[in-house]
Specification:
- The structure holds two protein chains of two kinds.
- By secondary structure, chain A is mainly alpha-helical.
- Chain A has four helices and three strands.
- Chain B contains eight helices and three strands; from the N terminus they run H-H-H-H-H-H-H-E-E-H-E.
- In chain B, strand 1 and strand 2 form a beta hairpin.
- Classes of the chains: A mainly alpha, B mainly alpha.
- Strand 2 of chain A pairs parallel with strand 3 of chain B, so a sheet runs across the interface.
Chain lengths: 126, 200
């Protein structure tokens, strides 16, 4: 009897997805640092300024969750296109959280870069 | 049907389905989510580089997947608390002093609660003490009167409902209580839900 083996997801790809997913919250808080944006503007900002491949169906629920946590606030604003848009901006708590996360991120990235140095040397030797 | 009509129809079907999937959340939360997604679809499919409706909806995921991502324990708990009679009563009491509408709704709610409770209890008491509980009516040429009572006096011959008082009292009382709470919940959403809108 022939057995069809289902192809398991590539572990490296899976790891990358998890990494991007974990950094999305910080990326959104950073996108809102300079002022209020609506959902699609946040998505475009992330696409332009980062390598994050953002799934649209993930960003809106995450924004809703951040609002529930008091990190962002929202307001409906009438736009020139004829329909209102929901704008998000950082609260004081959100700004503090973004700075805390940035500090942790910088420390973690520095330690990881340090750890990865031998890999760079191996590459240059080849 | 034109392509534009087909697209508009598929958006409406998607949004209706999303609203249905979010039915366990508070109406105000679910409606706001649907409106935001509607705006997103509109912005993506119009503007300088419009995308197709099919691609936009596919990027959002199925309505069920999208609703599942929204459904956090906090939102579900918020909906559960907001639908409880205790919450409705507390909000109604808080709004009592704010205008004629608040007073009117509170009067209706108080009347509904009293009548509902009374009928409900009367049905139960009739069940436990059938000989001394009932609704009585008197018809004469010049007078029609009703009264209901329970106590020590035995049934009078002009009792109207008899054993029917049990199901009628319990069902009618329950229905009045339910309607009163629905009215309270509806009025809180309709008249006292804050909504901030600004001009850009």
């Amino acid at each position: 009897m022939a057995v069809t083996k289902l192809s398991a997801p590539d572990p490296a790809e899976k790891w990358e997805v998890q990494l991007r997913k974990g950094s999305l919250e910080l990326a959104i808080l950073a996108a809102l640092w300079d002022g209020r944006l609506y959902g699609l503007e946040i998505l475009r900002h992330l696409e332009t300024h980062s390598e994050l491949v953002v799934v649209e169906g993930t960003v809106y629920p995450l924004l809703n969750r951040l609002r529930g946590l008091g990190l962002v606030e929202s307001e409906w604003v009438e736009s020139g296109s004829g329909h209102p848009r929901k704008y998000y901006s950082l609260t004081e708590g959100g700004r503090k959280r973004a700075l805390d996360m940035k500090r942790v991120w910088a420390r973690f990235a520095a330690s990881m870069n340090d750890l990865l140095k031998p890999l760079n040397e191996t590459k240059s030797k080849r | 049907m034109t392509l534009a009509e087909t697209s508009a129809r598929s958006v409406e079907i998607y949004l209706k389905s999303l609203r249905r999937e979010l039915s366990d959340l508070l109406d105000e939360d679910a409606n706001e989510i649907v409106e935001e997604i509607r705006t997103h679809i509109f912005d993506k499919t119009t503007g300088e580089t419009p995308e197709s409706v099919a691609a936009t909806l596919a990027a959002l995921g199925t309505p069920q997947e999208l609703a599942d991502r929204y459904r956090t324990p906090e939102l579900i708990e918020r909906a559960r608390l907001a639908r409880s009679p205790k919450y409705v009563l507390r909000r109604t009491m808080r709004r009592l002093g704010r205008g004629l509408l608040g007073l009117l709704l509170f009067s209706v709610a108080a009347l509904g609660c009293s009548l509902g409770c009374w009928l409900f209890l009367l049905g139960f008491i009739k069940l436990m003490s059938p000989r001394t509980t009932g609704v009585y009516g008197v018809w004469t040429k010049h007078d029609i009167s009703f009264n209901w009572q329970f106590g020590s006096s035995p049934n009078k011959p002009n009792e109207l409902l008899g054993w029917w008082l049990v199901p009628i009292g319990i069902l009618l009382g329950g229905a009045i209580l339910l309607l009163t709470f629905r009215l309270g919940y509806w009025s809180i959403r309709r008249f006292w839900t804050p909504r901030t809108r600004q001009e850009a």
